[in-house]
Amino acid sequence: MDKTSRGKFEGGDAAWEETNLKSYARSEIRLVEIQEGLCSEVNNHQDSCYSLAEQAEQLLEMWWFKQAPDTADLYSWLCIDTLHYCCPKLHYGELCSPCPLDKDNKICGGRGKCHGEGTRKGNGTCICNKGYKGSNCEDCDKNFYRGSDTKCKACHKACEGCNGGGPNACYSCKSGWILEAVPVQVLASTSVLLALMIHFCGVECA
């Protein structure tokens, strides 16, 4: 609707049409333009979008001419209240149940979304963002570690599991990498130097 909100009648006597016919804002011409562009920006399942738009054509006309397009929410009226295909934001499932909250009143700890949100499907369990896992996305996933800012960060590309950043924090090395040991000297006291071996994953195999 935004794309047509500033439009007007074109061709012929546009001024006469605006005065004597319905204004462009509530005209059938604008409705047709809106219907033609309904699915133009849908990237996935565009065929399904066009099929649904065709099924709902009469409902759209009813909404356009009998409701108040300037104030009524088309999405809520059509998809949630009339067709019962959708749920309000942060709700899911057949009954549009609210997504579960954790102890901090956040959905999935703020690190994911609940399964089926906005639809009549799903079970409300957490779908975690990349790097997180757990019932409330509270843990770091495999090959991620918790940084000083409490966020889960990716391990070094050589690591198969890690407890920090860099190749020297690996639990083990991924295929194609070799565990190397480098001697370093650490000052234990003013008169004693200790020789330690630092292990890290390095030298990627060709």
Can you count the beta strands?
10
By DSSP (H or I, 4+ residues per run), the number of helices equals 5
Cα radius of gyration in angstroms: 29 Å
Strand order of the largest sheet: 1-2
For this entry, give a set of tags:
206 residues, alpha+beta, two-stranded antiparallel sheet, 22% helix, disordered N terminus
Task: Report a brief summary of the structure.
The chain has five helices and ten strands.
Structure description:
The chain is of the alpha+beta class. Among the domains are: 2-66, no CATH class; 155-206, no CATH class. The chain is 22% helix and 19% strand. The protein has helices at residues 14-20, 28-36, 46-55, 57-66, 74-82; strands at 91-92, 97-98, 112-114, 126-128, 132-133, 139-140, 144-146, 152-154, 178-187, 193-202. The strands form five sheets. The protein has a two-stranded antiparallel sheet with strand order 1-2. β1 (91-92) and β2 (97-98) form a beta hairpin.
